[in-house]
Design brief:
36% helix, Rossmann fold, 6 helices, 21% strand, alpha/beta, seven-stranded mixed sheet, single chain, 193 residues
């Protein structure tokens, strides 16, 4: 099934800007900008939504405003409203199991400790696509995971992600054009940056 809804996960509010956990928000903002789409707050979906045209396809871009751990509260009603199945959903988010800045595309699989994905799995099932952006493992084993994912990116990390953003956007175009399975064969062959 083709992708119709693309959701970037993050936490709302200026306090969380440029944190590791908000990489999904950052990338969906870049996609909306590239497609010339405007964000609009839609209280009934607890989300910001942007409608986009990609070639001949209509897309719904979403930033849930529910905080990470409850993102299904936003995405479930959005899929139901447009009569779409979870297979039409692509979720963009940060992943501690991947080296910093590396990306991986997958369908199904475990949440890998990510509470937003665990919430989606619990309420929508497992059949949605995931575009994961590596933030690397915690620097110290004893560090609290929440402290790490909510920590701010360094200037160097921000610069690296900005430099790689065009290639991430190319990946998203490939997924929309070719579907998740075909795109996985190309995206997942790339080595870590």
């Amino acid at each position: 099934m083709s992708i119709s809804v693309i959701a970037g996960l993050g936490n709302p509010g200026p306090k969380y800007r440029n944190t590791r956990h908000n990489l999904g928000y950052d990338l969906i903002d870049r996609l909306a900008l590239q497609l010339g789409s405007q964000w609009k707050s839609v209280p009934k979906f607890e989300a910001e939504i942007a409608h986009a045209n990609f070639r001949d396809r209509k897309l719904v871009l979403v930033k849930p405003l529910t905080f990470m751990n409850a993102c299904s509260r936003s995405l479930g009603p959005i899929l139901r409203y447009w009569s779409l199945s979870p297979e039409s959903l692509l979720v963009l988010y940060d992943d501690i199991t991947l080296e910093f800045s590396r990306v991986k595309l997958s369908q199904n699989g475990s949440a890998g400790g990510h509470n937003g994905i665990a919430d989606l799995q619990e309420h929508l099932g497992d059949h949605f696509s995931r575009f994961r952006i590596g933030i690397g493992a915690k620097p110290h084993k004893e560090m609290d995971l929440a402290d790490y994912v909510l920590s701010h990116l360094t200037k160097n990390e921000q610069n690296l992600l900005a430099k790689l953003a065009p290639s991430y956007l190319e990946h998203l175009s490939l997924i929309i054009d070719s579907g998740t399975e075909a795109a996985m064969n190309i995206i997942n062959q790339r080595t870590a940056t």
